[in-house]
Amino acid sequence: MDLDWILNHLGEERDRYFGAVAPPLMQSAIFSFPTVAAMREQARDEFGHHFYTRGNNPTVEILRRKLAALEGAEDCLVFASGAAAIAAGVIAAVSAGDHVACVQKPYSWTRHLLAELLPRFGVTASFVDATEPAHIEAALTPRTRLIVLESPNSLTYELQDLAAVAALARARGVRTLCDNSYASPLNQSPLAFGIDLVAHSATKYLNGHGDVMAGALCGPQALLREAFRGPFMTLGAIPSPHDAWLLLRGLRTLPLRMQRCAATAARVVAFLEAHPKIERVWYPHSPSHPQHALALRQMRGASGLLSVAIRCDDVCGVERFCDALRRFLLSVSWGGYESLACPTAAFLPAATRTTPKPGHVPANLVRLSIGLEEADVLIADLAQALDKV
Ligand SMILES: *Cc1c(COP(=O)(O)O)cnc(C)c1O
Question: Which domains are seen in the chain, by residue range?
Answer without folding.
Answer: 3-251 (3.40.640.10), 254-386 (3.90.1150.10)
